[in-house]
Structures are given as structure tokens and as C-alpha cells.
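seq as requested:
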Amino acid sequence: MDKFFHSVTLDESKCVGCTNCIKRCPTEAIRVRNGKAVITSERCIDCGECIRVCPHHAKRAKHDHLSMLDRFTYKIALPAPSLYGQFNNLDDQDYVLTGLKKLGFDDVVEVSGAAELVSEATRRLMDAGKLKRPVISSACPAIVRLIRVRFPDLCDHVLPLLSPMETAATIAKQEAMKKTGLPEEEIGCFFITPCPAKVTDIRMPIGIERSKVDGAIAISEIFPQLSNKMDKLHPDELEPLSNSGIIGVSWATSGGESSALLKERYLAADGIENVIRVLEEIEDERIGELDFIELNACTGGCVGGVLCVENPYVAVARLQRLRRYLPVSQNHLESGESVPEDMNWEGELEFSNVLTLSDDLARAMEMMMEIDEVEASLPGLDCGACGAPTCRAFAEDVVRGNSQKADCIFVLRKQIQQFADSISNLDGGILPKDPD
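C-alpha cells:
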């Protein structure tokens, strides 16, 4: 397993050193050095915000390709519910699912079906009073990583359940092994992903040691070929593969997971900046009397992922149309009060101290004071011209030894002016005055 794998990467040949990405990164993981952006691996949460805002397309997301199917004997597609929102006039999920089989998959297991199981498991845990309120959804891996990095006090509020993607992969492999008699290593599960955070979550999962998903193929890559297969489908060719209802499909949009809990005291926020404001208020205990909080890094929910092809608002409208033809839910846990063991995390969410100044508390306090002093001497404009997103971040870079104070153009201009004044005074004191 990779120590630091990231789906979000930088193409230096396209980077012009603008400040769009550094201003929008939620963990201040990006700096501009020597005219190029630099991503700090330890801080990156693969939310894809830099991909979204880069006007030069210098940021991109790594993902797997359909050619990876050749590595496995039996191939299973795990379509995200957001995939359905990419197609116009879709009134039957079986068109999408059958189309995926035409692309070379042996079977298809809907992630939206697994989402219905996760919703029911969440309801059971909350009704049993086993979770610390407010419960924060763990479905968006970018949000979970954000909490690990910036909000350590909220780690024990995160729902300790596997995501629908992981649950779907577990179910898919169990059923495939029974059906085919093949060993698990010959069965490949491929998530059709709307975002880079899911790609990273497969390679470096949180809550479990190893993911059951073998690869992630971007919706944007598979969409043209899948559309072509769907256009050629005759109604008689459709296979009855769909097994999810309104609750599962609704997970694709912001508020879908929350509404599935059938509770009134919940909050749903989307867009990384809005999410950060909500988390700050939870941390400051300014949000009370809530049972559940659903947070999505992408605007609109998963339909707003940077690997989708359709405008998120158009996708939401299409999903609303599709939901009219669906039952409420088609997947349920076995009767009882407990949640299946294979749906739980294997361990607790732990704080990642990548923002800590020093492991030595005394030295960390000294550095904090030094940062305050440097920041006080800066203009406070947060212009980004130094290559850091804010004057505070720049002051930290200076104290850490990653930048020089003169990298601030205002400090440099002041130093140049002082130097010019000293030269002028020196000239005035040594050179004879012109008699005229």
C-alpha cells in the first residue's frame, strides 16, 4: 500500500504559477515556488478543488482505465449513483447497467443499493444511542481526510461505517465467489467514480486496512463508450439488473443521505468552503440539537465531482425525474438490532498531525510566537503574490525555513526603498555638490 498516494497531480508544463489553486485549497497544501505550483503530499485531501479552479488545466486526476479489466477473470462494475444523472431522459437504470455489461463487465452491482444498506445501518446505530451527536457522515472521503487534518476534536463524531462503495464491493465479491467458484483475487471490482477522492480512498483507505475495490474508472472516461452502447440497446436486450430505489439514488445529491435517515434534526452542506464553515461552528459548539450532519466536498453532492461530465444542477434535475419511477428502497439488512460486522470500520479515525509545527511543545510555542511576529510585519492583504495563500501561511513558511521574508513583494519593495534611501544619503555626504 502506498504511503502517500494522491489522485490529484500537477502537470508542470501547463502551470503558469497563478494563485487560483493556492487560494482555494482547504488545507493550504499548495504553494507557488519558482513560478510553479507545489503540492504538499501530507496535506492534500484530494478534494479536487484545485482541478476545478485551475484555468490552465494544470491539475488533473489519476484514475484507472478499462484496460485494467484484463487483469481479472471475472469483472464487476460498481456504478456510483451520480452516473445516472449524466444521461438525458433516463427513466430506467437497466439501460446504464446493461450498457456496462456490453463494455466488458461480467456483472454490475449498484452502489446505490449498498447506500440503502448503509442508511439502514446508520439508523440502527443512532437509534441504539451508540454514536456521539452530532454524527458526521463518513461517505465523502475528502471530508473525512479534512477532519483528520484540520478538525481533530471532531474525529470521534465521524460515522464509523464503510462507505456504500466499499459495502457494494464486499457484497459483489461474496456473491461472485459463490456464483463462479473463483478465488477472490481473480474477481475485480471497479468503481465508476465521480471524483478523485474515491480513487485515493481505494489506494489509501481510512477505517480499513485494505479496500475491496480493485480500481476506479472516471465517469468522464467511460461516458462516451457507455453512451454509445446504450444508444444501440434494444428494449428486448435489457437485463433486470437494477436493485435500488429512491433512497439509494438520492445519495448522489446533497441531502440524499440525510433524508434517508428519516429524522428531522439534520443538516446537509456541500461545497468545500461551506463545509469548512459548518465544521468550524460544530467545533466551537455553535451548532446544537442536531442528530446528523451530511457534508459533501463537491457542490451539489457527488454529481458535482470533477470527474463527472454533466453540469451538477442539470444532473440533479435528471435524477429527480428518474426517482419518480422508483420504489422507496429495495435493500434491507437482516432483522435484528445489530449492524453486520463487515460494514463497520476496523479502527477509529485518528488525527493526522501534518499541520503541527513541532513535536516538541516548547519549540512549537516558540514557533507560534515567531509566526505572530512575522505576520505582524506583513501587510495583511492575503494577495498570494508570495506563493502562499495568506499572510499567516507565508509567515509559517518563513519560520519553517521554506521561504524568506523578502519573498513578500511589499517587504521587498520596502527593503529596496530603504536601500535606495541609504545610497542617496551616502552620495549626499561624500560627493561634492555641483556649484551651479
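The mean pLDDT is 93.
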